[in-house]
């Protein structure tokens, strides 16, 4: 496994279209590192530059301490798995997986053994004689993965490899891919626009926005302590409010007043899963009175949209047998300290 360091990377496709705008990143050896961001933020461009398929305008990439300026793709120990499988249609699964080793003129017998071993790891060993058109989407992606792993690259790049799959299969492959990475200990750079997927899979992740890295950290840090409004919204937080006034021991925002000594910042975030509701008006420390507007029952939890002061808040409540609240009902929101994060 190798480290990757990316320094001051710039790439513009035209004077108006800057795809990467000064990207600095360090990926550790053996890390499952994810690039997360909306469509068009520069994820694919960054992967293509790491692979050597695209030249940066400025900046540099090193893998395992080796500077890759001008090094062509096939001389980098990097393989890529794309969203659109890109298998050779006229070769069977066995030959697709073994292709990289054939190119390196590895002995036939050794290729056979390694294809068999890799096919077992990726669970396609019963499909070796089929052609790609006889495979499902999930099977094709397993074959693409086996083909990319067979020559043991230092780094595997994965560009939204699961996004063409339906939800159930996708969840299953997320688990398998994560297990595989932990087992092989190889450095993975994984791209997705899905924040849930990024959190499930990654050791660390970088959130990209318009060609810039907004924040790098573990899933927990990115979710619990977002540094920017963009990151907070992209991670799915709904209760984000401008801080109108901050006194020594309280904060004022559209929803009302919260007591406590809070860090300085522009916005306050209330985590919907850490708020709790009580029926009626209940006085107490950091309790806000509100009225339920909408209830979205989701089985294990219910999402309540409530009107609180001049703000609309979302509260996610676990359904553990207690009575549900109804729209129109007066409630009290209990704001626990751990529900609050301040955006700097
Ligand atoms: P992502 O993978 O995050 O969706 P991309 O890296 O594909 O983003 O694209 C980043 C930006 O660069 C987009 O606005 C896209 O339109 C533009 N772009 C990407 N590739 C090219 C290209 N070959 N020519 C012109 N513009 C491009
Ligand atoms: Mg892309």
UniProtKB/TrEMBL annotation:
<keyword id="KW-0547">Nucleotide-binding</keyword>
<feature type="domain" description="ABC transporter">
    <location>
        <begin position="4"/>
        <end position="235"/>
    </location>
</feature>
<dbReference type="InterPro" id="IPR017871">
    <property type="entry name" value="ABC_transporter-like_CS"/>
</dbReference>
<dbReference type="GO" id="GO:0016887">
    <property type="term" value="F:ATP hydrolysis activity"/>
</dbReference>
<protein>
    <submittedName>
        <fullName>ATP-binding cassette domain-containing protein</fullName>
    </submittedName>
</protein>
<dbReference type="InterPro" id="IPR050093">
    <property type="entry name" value="ABC_SmlMolc_Importer"/>
</dbReference>
<dbReference type="InterPro" id="IPR013611">
    <property type="entry name" value="Transp-assoc_OB_typ2"/>
</dbReference>
<keyword id="KW-0067">ATP-binding</keyword>
<dbReference type="InterPro" id="IPR003593">
    <property type="entry name" value="AAA+_ATPase"/>
</dbReference>
<dbReference type="Pfam" id="PF08402">
    <property type="entry name" value="TOBE_2"/>
</dbReference>
<dbReference type="GO" id="GO:0043190">
    <property type="term" value="C:ATP-binding cassette (ABC) transporter complex"/>
</dbReference>
<dbReference type="GO" id="GO:0005524">
    <property type="term" value="F:ATP binding"/>
</dbReference>
<dbReference type="InterPro" id="IPR027417">
    <property type="entry name" value="P-loop_NTPase"/>
</dbReference>
<dbReference type="InterPro" id="IPR003439">
    <property type="entry name" value="ABC_transporter-like_ATP-bd"/>
</dbReference>
<dbReference type="GO" id="GO:0140359">
    <property type="term" value="F:ABC-type transporter activity"/>
</dbReference>
<keyword id="KW-0813">Transport</keyword>
<dbReference type="InterPro" id="IPR008995">
    <property type="entry name" value="Mo/tungstate-bd_C_term_dom"/>
</dbReference>
<dbReference type="Pfam" id="PF00005">
    <property type="entry name" value="ABC_tran"/>
</dbReference>
């Amino acid at each position: 496994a190798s480290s990757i360091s990316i320094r001051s990377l710039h790439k513009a496709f035209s004077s108006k279209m800057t795809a990467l705008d000064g990207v600095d990143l360090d990926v550790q050896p053996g890390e499952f590192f994810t690039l997360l961001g909306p469509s068009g933020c520069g994820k694919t461009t960054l992967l293509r530059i790491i692979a050597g398929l695209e030249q940066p305008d400025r900046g540099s990439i090193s893998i395992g301490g080796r500077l890759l300026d001008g090094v062509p793709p096939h001389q980098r120990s990097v393989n890529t798995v794309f969203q659109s499988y890109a298998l050779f249609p006229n070769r069977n699964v066995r030959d697709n997986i073994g292709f990289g080793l054939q190119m390196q003129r590895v002995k036939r017998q050794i290729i056979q053994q390694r294809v068999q071993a890799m096919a077992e790891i990726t669970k396609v060993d019963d499909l070796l004689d089929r052609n790609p058109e006889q495979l499902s989407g999930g099977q094709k992606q397993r074959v693409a993965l086996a083909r990319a792993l067979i020559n043991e690259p230092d780094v595997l790049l994965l560009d939204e490899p699961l996004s063409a799959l339906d939800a159930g299969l996708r969840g299953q492959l997320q688990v398998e891919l994560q297990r595989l990475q932990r087992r092989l200990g190889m450095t993975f750079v994984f791209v997705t626009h899905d924040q849930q997927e990024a959190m499930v899979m990654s050791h660390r992740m970088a959130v990209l926005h318009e060609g810039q890295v907004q924040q790098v950290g573990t899933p927990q840090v990115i979710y619990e302590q977002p540094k920017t409004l963009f990151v907070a919204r992209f991670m799915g937080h709904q209760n984000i409010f401008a801080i109108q006034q901050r006194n020594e021991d309280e904060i004022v925002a559209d929803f009302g007043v919260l007591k406590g000594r809070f860090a300085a910042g522009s916005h306050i975030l209330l985590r919907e899963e850490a708020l709790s509701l009580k029926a009626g008006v209940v006085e107490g420390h950091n309790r806000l009175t509100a009225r339920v507007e909408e209830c979205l029952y989701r089985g294990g939890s219910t999402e309540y949209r409530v009107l609180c002061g001049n703000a609309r808040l979302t509260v996610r409540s676990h359904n553990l047998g207690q009575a549900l609240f109804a729209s129109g009902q007066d409630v009290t929101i209990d704001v626990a300290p751990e529900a609050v994060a301040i955006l700097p």
